Structures are given as structure tokens and as C-alpha cells.
TrEMBL record:
Belongs to the universal ribosomal protein uS17 family. SUPFAM superfamilies: Nucleic acid-binding proteins. PANTHER family: 40S RIBOSOMAL PROTEIN S11 FAMILY MEMBER, SMALL RIBOSOMAL SUBUNIT PROTEIN US17M. This is Uncharacterized protein. GO terms for molecular function: structural constituent of ribosome. GO terms for biological process: translation. Coiled coil: none annotated. Residues 85-134 are annotated as: Disordered.
């Protein structure tokens, strides 16, 4: 499924704790059959990114489509609508859900690119653009001198 901004579904958490930072949410949809005009229920399971692992079994949640986290996981936990207080009396529903963190590789690239840009700008200021141009002219003169 390509990226769908603002694609929000409501569902029930059916599996949690098997994979780190992942919950399985079952989303049910009801539609009317076009020929027999009868209501039909269909459901689909989605793997959902749960950054702080706050989802619990049988929570009613909303999920939102976002950037793909893995091969099968493109949704992330948006909010927890309700929780069974008899099963989890000590755990209140969190008011905010954390955004997914950057992958370490991408974060490292982002951090490495900032100092590199600063070094380039300081080198350009120290030598000026003339230093690079002069080096290119010298190289051109030496190549032209070899061909004559």
C-alpha cells in the first residue's frame, strides 16, 4: 500500500508482546452486499508500530498510515480510545503517544551531514573560491602544455 496521508482506522489490539515495538490490530469493516443487500462483516489485520509499547490486549485504538517502518508495517499507533480497566487497573490510558524514532542509520547520516556542511563552508571562507579556480587553471595549463 503506498503512503496514504490521513488514512485513519479504528480497531482492536489482538496481539501484543510477540515482536518488539509492534502490535497487531484487527480492523473490522461493515458493508452492504450489492446484490443481496445484506450487511457483511470483513476484517483485516495490520501490524502497527508502537514506539513505547503502551498498547495492551483488547484495547480499542486508532491507527494512522505513515512512513513504512518495515516490510509489512506501515501504520503507527495514533491513540488509545479505551482500555479494559478490570484487566489493567494499574495502567491508565496514556494521553500522548510517542512519534516513531528515526532509524539509527538515518539519524547518524543526518548528524554527520551537519558538521560536513560547516567544514565546507569554513574551508570556502578561508581559501575563497579563487583557490579552487587557480588550481583548476594550473591543471588546465599543465595539460595544454603536454599536448603542444
Amino acid at each position: 500500500m503506498p503512503y496514504q496521508p490521513n488514512h485513519i482506522f479504528k480497531g482492536v489490539v489482538t496481539k501484543v508482546g510477540v515482536m518488539r515495538k509492534t502490535a497487531t490490530v484487527t480492523v473490522e469493516r461493515i458493508f452492504e452486499h450489492p446484490k443481496i443487500l445484506k450487511e457483511i462483516k470483513r476484517h483485516k489485520k495490520y501490524l502497527v508500530h508502537d514506539e513505547n509499547e503502551v498498547a495492551r490486549l483488547e484495547d480499542k485504538v486508532t491507527i494512522i498510515h505513515g512512513a513504512r517502518t518495515s516490510r509489512r508495517k506501515a501504520f503507527r499507533l495514533h491513540s488509545i480510545v479505551s482500555r479494559d480497566t478490570r484487566k489493567y487497573p494499574d495502567e491508565p490510558i496514556p494521553s500522548t503517544i510517542a512519534e516513531p524514532s528515526l532509524k539509527p542509520r538515518k539519524e547518524r547520516r543526518r548528524l554527520d551531514s551537519v558538521p560536513a556542511a560547516k567544514e565546507e563552508s569554513t574551508q570556502g571562507q578561508g581559501q575563497g573560491q579563487g583557490g579552487v579556480l587557480e588550481a583548476l587553471k594550473d591543471l588546465k595549463d599543465s595539460v595544454v602544455g603536454l599536448t603542444r
